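Hi R.,

As promised, here are both runs. First protein below:
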Amino acid sequence: CGFGGTFNLKFPVVAGGMAGSKLADVRATGAPTLVSTDVSCLTHLERASGGEMPEALSIAELLARALPE
């Protein structure tokens, strides 16, 4: 996704390009929700998107939604 610990701090232009490419792939699916096991990637993509991406959930959030109340 382009985050990778300090990668995005050391190489912000490359990290931004990687996020942009990943966001294009996400948008192309038309899926209403993006689920990932990597919360740092979700945060990176959300920031890079400027609010223009599907709902983003960690796998833990998705599983929590599936639990009975």
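And here is the second one, sequence first, then its structure tokens:
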Amino acid sequence: MNLFRALLTVSGFTLLSRVTGLARETLIARAFGASQYTDAFYVAFRIPNLLRRISAEGAFSQAFVPILAEFKNQQGHDATKALVDATSTVLAWALAILSLIGVVGASGVVFVVASGLAHEGQAYALAVTMTRIMFPYIIFISLTSLASGVLNTYKNFSLPAFAPVLLNVAFIVAAMFVAPHLKTPVYALAWAVIAGGVLQFAVQLPGLKKIDMIPRIGLNPVKALAHRGVKRVLSKMVPAMFAVSVAQISLIINTNIASRIGPGAVSWINYADRLMEFPTALLGVALGTILLPSLSKAHVDADPHEYSSLLDWGLRVTFLLAAPSAVALFFFAQPLTATLFHYGKFDGNAVVMVSRALSAYGVGLIGLILIKILAPGFYAKQDIKTPVKIGVGVLILTQLSNYLFVPIFSHAGLTLSVGLGACGNALLLFLGLRKRGIYMPSHGWPKFFVQLLGACLVLAGAMHWLAISFDWIGMHSRPLDRMALLGACLVLFAALYFGMLWLMGFKYAYFRRRVK
């Protein structure tokens, strides 16, 4: 398998997902602006989303995929299928119970996540109602995560990468065609979440059927819990849940702080999140997705050289593509925000506020992406405890940073703290891999960094000049001209960056890597 081709496949579908996601956010911004309605929705959506990241895409995949790869490579099809069935049974039953608890206790959950909304009666009531609607989403999206883990282990990356597009399609349909007909239009977005969760799982069923891995959810979760593979998954998942929870706890605290800054602050950060997640998904999530199964196989095969080589390749790809992305978020935040969101009720002030949060994310973007590459270096070896310890330290660092930065930068201080915390996390993960001898850098890194620095300095100058040379907010009445200008700028930036690297002797052939 060609790793770079697999990366392009996953990144391509992820790009489609992010483009439709931006279309979704643009429609929501146009219809609702940055208001108490969007604050209520994003608070309500964040709750099942946090649980999804903790129980499904985060802790579950980190614990499940390495053990699944071990069963596949050492014990054969029947044993692997039994593991999938038992795991899906335990997962479905546990999350069904959790969903019921969440629906019943929605009011208390919303208060914990965003107590500032309690002073805005209507927003708080809306958030509670939408939390009850959306909580069952974690069942469907967790099964989606299980299906994705199975397909990725079998080197099928396309369907899992495409699935998130369907959630965005559900949002777009709801915002355009359902919301206008409801007494409370924002409720359409909540129901779109449920529809999207079902669609994401359903679209992967053909791929699972092809390899005879459609999960069978049994009626006896106690029996499934006794499966030795499930016990191992759970033993790894508990500390992994804590590790992932650390980051999510930080997000909850930040949401609470943002809800106290004033109306719109939660939404400003959310819109900045959407843009920040563009490069983190295209690079970090995509690289982590393709590396984890290959790293797990190298671990099972007891091949430390291949293991280190895979990490080295992933780190180089990350720096190559994350560095210009970070420069773009920092120097070109306002043009990006204005072009994508400055429509309808989303006014010029909102553009400025989102741009500030986005620029702050640019400071720590490389760290946010590096975590997605370095952490699998531990997970593939079934070492969850080290990232847990690091995560606890990062949570403390991030929240201490909030005390320093929020009074100075307001809501942008929250995103700055997250980015700096991620950089600290990435540094500690890297040092941990080096100390254990898991990762040995290949030759050529100093020259590589000099080439990147030169190209990024030229890129930063060009971006800053074009950002201040045009009135991006003032082009509100000419949206097509603004879109065309942004597109031309992005093409110019890409040509400038890669052209500078080529002039400095950068070799692209290194990235054409193959694995068994």
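A quick note on the second one: The chain has 19 helices and no strands. Let me know what you think.

Best,
J.
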